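Q: What residues go here?
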């Protein structure tokens, strides 16, 4: 149900965020770390590249700004000419222009999670699945550690463990954990952005690169884009729907028509009858609709020794994950 198992499985370049933001810095740092880990551990991944396509002059102006920003932060992008675009992806429509992100790719997210779990357990760690945290007791301001209470979903039995340090990396439940630890005046309100994904059963058109529409300011997402899995299957999404329940993972048929219209702006030749609802994921947000850019929150908390808070870890969290781990280590031990 969590974000790691319900996402686009895209290895992002780090194009879309401000120069001095955690999302940019950790994505740019984490991307080569992730590619390197995949190569060393035989985790399936592929550098597919990504096209950001513009249909209007305003969108092209925005894409050129994105291209200049990418050059500034050291992310490789290039402009794709009309002739090259037709030769490589004849079915993709880009009336005003194409920016190509050269380092974007895809990864088998489930294989990655399986490796990370196994690596943790080989080093002596334990994973307690299906054991939701019910409360957290701070011991002497964290100087004596933290007592974390969990409840077995099958038996209802409550157990507790005491740890010297506590890292709140709970994804969709991170605000809830934050509110168990910190005083009321430092509580956070979670917001949930649901994204539906759509499968494509036809064999044509079938681009070999990822295709994203030009970004729309303050939309809370990157638009309904085209991604691939490692078997070459096409899927579209996610779209954006604000919900109140983090467990609301049921796809709604009413989302399908809007998604098809969005996809047809850059892939007009799709077979509409071959597009179907697939699955949903939910992104943890720290603010609601129209709130603008929200960065990752990764920080220690004053008065709570040995506690590191990770909040709003949405995209590009998967790409950034190894760099986030290094940052947490520095906050705790250096």
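A:
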């Amino acid at each position: 149900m969590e974000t790691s198992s319900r996402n686009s499985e895209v290895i992002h370049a780090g194009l879309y965020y401000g120069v001095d933001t955690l999302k940019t810095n950790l994505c740019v740092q984490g991307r080569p770390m992730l590619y390197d880990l995949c190569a060393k551990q035989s985790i399936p991944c592929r550098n597919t590249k990504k096209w950001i396509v513009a249909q209007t002059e305003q969108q092209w102006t925005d894409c050129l700004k994105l291209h200049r920003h990418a050059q500034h932060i050291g992310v490789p992008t290039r402009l794709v000419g009309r002739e090259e675009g037709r030769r490589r992806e004849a079915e993709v429509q880009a009336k005003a222009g194409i920016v190509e992100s050269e380092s974007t790719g895809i990864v088998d997210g489930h294989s990655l999670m399986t490796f990370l779990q196994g690596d943790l357990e080989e080093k002596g760690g334990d994973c307690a699945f299906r054991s939701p945290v019910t409360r957290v007791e701070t011991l002497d301001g964290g100087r004596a550690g933290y007592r974390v209470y969990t409840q077995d979903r099958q038996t209802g039995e409550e157990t507790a463990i005491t740890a010297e340090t506590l890292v709140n990396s709970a994804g969709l439940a991170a605000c809830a954990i934050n509110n168990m630890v910190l005083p009321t005046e430092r509580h956070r309100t979670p917001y949930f952005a649901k994204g539906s994904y759509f499968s494509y059963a036809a064999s044509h058109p079938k681009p070999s690169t990822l295709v994203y529409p030009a970004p729309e300011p303050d939309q809370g997402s990157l638009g309904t884009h085209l991604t691939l899995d490692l078997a070459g299957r096409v899927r579209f999404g996610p779209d954006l729907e604000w919900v109140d329940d983090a467990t609301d993972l049921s796809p709604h048929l009413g989302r399908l028509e809007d998604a098809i219209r969005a996809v047809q702006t850059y892939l007009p030749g799709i077979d509409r009858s071959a597009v179907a609802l697939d699955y949903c994921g939910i992104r943890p947000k720290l603010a609601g609709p129209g709130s603008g850019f929200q960065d990752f929150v990764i920080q220690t908390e004053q008065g709570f020794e040995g506690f590191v808070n990770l909040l709003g870890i949405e995209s590009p969290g998967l790409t950034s994950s190894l760099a986030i781990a290094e940052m947490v280590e520095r906050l705790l031990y250096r």
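A: Context that may help when evaluating the design: The mean pLDDT is 95. The longest helix spans residues 22-41.
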